């Protein structure tokens, strides 16, 4: 079954461990192990996802310049992006391009990556990262997520 609608929101925090504790207490969220294989670090961040709560927590790495650090220095902690689940990520990105949007990063995970990073919950995991202007004015991810049967 394909998921549609909002898959998760991306929330940036300065203190990664305190952020995890906050959302665990507030929402009963259970965070999957941190994605620490270098992919998140290439963006200058730490990342953990609470699939059950629809939260992706990001925090800038110490002493590393990154777009999330730049944004947080201007606007503080909080919601920094939305991951939309769509039927077909490629078609959604084509529609975005027709609206003047451009992808700056693309993920298309293998089953091995899905098993490791998504705890095996999907058979397909594909995302386009888009810096969207109005009316969204935030980072948007267009993702195709097919739940594993």
Q: Would you summarize the structure shown here?
A:
This protein has helices at 16-27, 67-75, 89-98, 111-117, and strands at 5-12, 45-50, 55-60, 78-85, 103-108, 122-132, 138-147. With 149 residues, the chain is of the alpha/beta class.
Describe what you observe in this structure.
This protein is an alpha/beta fold and 149 residues long. It has a single domain (5-147), classed as Roll (2,3-Dihydroxybiphenyl 1,2-Dioxygenase, domain 1), CATH 3.10.180. The chain has 4 helices and 7 strands, in the order βαββαβαβαββ. It has helices at residues 16-27, 67-75, 89-98, 111-117, and strands at residues 5-12, 45-50, 55-60, 78-85, 103-108, 122-132, 138-147. Strands 2-3-1-4-7-6-5 form a 7-stranded mixed sheet. The protein is globular, with a radius of gyration of 15 Å. The chain starts with a strand and ends with a strand.
Mean pLDDT: 92
Number of helices: 4
Helical content (DSSP H or I, runs of 4+): 25-40%
CATH homologous superfamily descriptor: 2,3-Dihydroxybiphenyl 1,2-Dioxygenase, domain 1
Tell me the β content.
35-45%
- SS content category: alpha/beta
Order of strands, main sheet, comes to 2-3-1-4-7-6-5
> Rounded to an integer, what's the Rg over CA atoms?
15 Å
The largest sheet, given as strand count, sense and whether it forms a barrel, is: 7 strands, mixed
CATH topology: 2,3-Dihydroxybiphenyl 1,2-Dioxygenase, domain 1
The CATH architecture category equals Roll
Q: What is the class in the CATH system?
A: Alpha Beta
Report, as a whole number of angstroms, the end-to-end distance: 8 Å
**N to C succession of SSEs:** EHEEHEHEHEE
